[in-house]
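We modelled the chain as a single entity of 218 amino acids. Its sequence is:
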Amino acid sequence: MEANSKKILSLKKIFKSYEANVVIDNFSFDVDYGESVGIFGKNGSGKSTILKICCGLLQPDSGSISVMGKSFSSSEESLQIKSRMGVMLHDDMIYPQLTIKENLVFYSKILGIKNTTENIQKISSLLDIDEYMNVPVLKLSNGNKRRASLGKSLLNDPDILIADEPESNLDDKGKEIVSKVLSNRRKRGLTNFFSTHSKDFLKECSSKTIKLNGATKL
């Protein structure tokens, strides 16, 4: 999908509450093509909520969002957005009874990806999970589940990657791998929008940062 402006993601006056708890209050922000933007803040500050809104899994109470110049409010445009977006949330969104390879083959078919075998092998090598490809996800360590989840989100070489604390549950080697993935994507002109608790990871992987302090109760 070609960029028709500098902005790949635009949020305008986003407001989101859960009953009496205001999580996001009048939040506006733009992300340009090729940026790697990190959201930093304590638990409950709204990081995950913003990311879920950005990938169309959650609707704001008010405000607007545009991704690649398109809107989730249109079914056709929503499908176009999701075909060029990668998503990695706390819920790994992979089937535990299937192996990593089976998961990646399944999602490749859904995304209509060609050269499936070659593409999956490339991702496996990139994330250093070759030895775990035929292991059921439910038998993996939490760290390797996170790598598998990242692998799923990279299948379509997305224009924008939405990742919620991609470094969580990873050892130093795993964090280094994820950091390189985000860095290489940015060098290629692709966009990352991620949250983190780690100031070191934020500094290493972001070209721009957002500090969230959280909203207040109604």
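As a brief sanity check on the tokenised model: The helical segments are 47-54, 75-83, 100-111, 116-126, 142-153, 172-187, 199-205. The chain has a mean pLDDT of 92.
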